[in-house]
Amino acid sequence: MNDEHSGSCLCGAVRFRTRGKLREVVACHCSQCRKQTGLYYAATNVPRDNITIEGEEAITWYRASSFARRGFCRTCGSALFWLADVADEISIMAGLFDQPSDLQIAYHIYCADKGDFYEIGDGLPQYRQGRPGLATAGPSD
Asked: Are 87 and 109 in contact (CB under 8 A)?
């Protein structure tokens, strides 16, 4: 996998570049992620020191839980980031990366909370709630 990636929001007001290895993509089906994106949140992580963001003035942060916030572009509305208050890493929506990204979904979390209008049929591991060791807000936080 390439150790440098770039990406942007839909309108390009927010651009970013990452360095170093990205975490595998996690698909979160909790109600917060569903309501923010309309489907599910597919994201990877990178250490906060390994991301450079251009256009930070176009990012609006929404406090989605008692310990995390979600960043989106105030111009086009693109969902961008999930950031725990006490975290060394930032979660980045996988669809923002320029192609080819070499990213792959590894597993699904909060499957018990997924929308009733689709099935998960890719054969990847599915967790009813979160996965141990993975920081998330959860469906009701």
From this structure: no
Classify 132 in phi/psi space as left (phi over 0), alpha (psi -120 to 50) or beta.
Answer: beta
DSSP code of residue 97? B
Whole-angstrom distance, CA of residue 43 vs CA of residue 14: 17
Distance (Å, whole) CA 8 – CA 75: 12
Q: What's the pLDDT tens digit per position in 15-61? A: 999 999 999 999 999 999 999 999 999 999 999 999 999 999 999 99
Parallel, antiparallel, or unpaired: how do β-strands 25-28 and 105-109 relate? parallel
Q: Cβ neighbours of residue 121 under 8 Å, at least 6 residues apart? A: none
pTM of structure: 0.89
CA angle 37/73/87 to nearest 5° reads: 80
Single out the residue of 127, 105, 79, 117 nearest to residue 24, CA to CA.
Answer: 105
What's phi and psi for 104, nearest 5 deg?
-145, 140
**Sheet strands side by side (includes 89-93):** 59-63, 68-73, 79-84, 89-93, 41-47, 25-28, 105-109
